[in-house]
Amino acid sequence: MTTNIISSSVIMSPRKRTLVPVSSRRKAADDYFPFNFLPVECQLHVLSFLNEVDKCSCALVCLSWSCLVRSWKLWRVADYSRRGVFHQGQEGLLVSNREFERWKAWVHHYTHHLVSRRASLLTLKASFDLGDRCNKWSELLGHLLDHVHCRDLSHLDLNWTFTLLEPLDLRVHSSSSSHQDSITKMDQVTSFQELLTKLTHSCPRISKMRLHFDWSDVSMSLLTNFQQLRVLELKYFWVFKGVTPSTLQHLTKSLPNLKSLTLQILVPLRNLGISYTLESQSLEFLDVSPSRGLVFSCLKLPALRELRAKKIVRGITLDRRTRLRIQSRWPCLYHVLREGTPRLQALNNERLLPTWREERYGEMSAILEQSCYCVQHLDSWLW
Q1: Positive or negative: CA dihedral 67, 68, 70, 71
Q2: Is-contact 361 322, C-beta < 8 A?
Q3: Edge-to-edge strand order for the sheet containing 155-159?
Q4: How far apart are alpha carbons 138 and 132 in whole angstroms?
Q5: Which GO CC annotations does the UniProt entry carry (predicted)?
Q6: How far apart are CA 129 and CA 136, in angstroms?
Q7: pLDDT of residue 336 exceeding 50
Q8: What's the DSSP call for residue 149?
Q9: How large is the average pLDDT for residues 251-274?
Q10: How confident is the model at residue 333 (pLDDT cuts 50, 70, 90)?
Q11: CA-based angle 89:91:92, to the nearest 5?
Q12: Longest dimension (CA), the chain
């Protein structure tokens, strides 16, 4: 009776599993990658590809990984422009006071995190209004530079005129008087120059720099101390702040290793008619398309390969006499380029033929209509 029951149970049982050898069922050490047996430098190199959030998650795995993540070699970037969940991709956003305090707490926590890890920075990105006496962003950046290793810092991206997130009441209670604006601008410039002074001593190897610039004599003398600069982008600080031709010429002559230069200069109306000279033995790329009213009378750039320039309408109508008086001071951009840029290969993203110097305008006519301010190429005088 029992035998019949067992037999029927065997018959009615589901399909039998395939027999697997005991040796293959054993959980051996070869079943996973021996990450912990790699040299420490290799482990750090692998972890360096992770973002900051993932690095912190790895620190929770085990004690050995926690020690690895604390290494200063993994913290090479200080990016205050990264807001995470704070309205990704939006600029200049007004937020509630509560959300602003939450973001500010994140900024201070992030700074403490970099200091406690003894970060060795290669890149610093930040956007803070350094003239803000309440939040003291200038002191925060100074504290960071004093307590991390930044001797090897090579990339600086700094907007010292603007804080990414601003509370609502900051705009409501702010004064719109020109006197108050002037005081605010002076505070910003003073704090910027103090920070730039600290950078010249702490980070002399910066090779790439992107920032707003006030073009004062003090700031110019500080900027030209960065002799390793190869890529420089300067944005305008204040629309009423002009740039003298001698200042601009001194900038390019004082940076012997400069390869790429981007300028956003807004020439004030009182300086309308002034032309500029650039001289550099190393400059290969020049972009002045963000500028307004910037006209060149002479270029001495033997290594220049690409130039971007664009006319920007101002919305001001000039009478014929004034127009001719101003235009008579400006040479055609074609002649300036032919005489001062022997290696030029591209203009406004257009590839030039090797024979462009031999023809008068030729293929460059359409391009010059968009970038030259001379009489031949400026039909509309609605500035």
Answers
A1: positive
A2: no
A3: 77-79, 123-127, 155-159, 208-213, 231-236, 260-263, 285-287, 306-308, 346-347, 350-351
A4: 8
A5: SCF ubiquitin ligase complex
A6: 9
A7: yes
A8: B
A9: 89
A10: confident
A11: 150
A12: 123
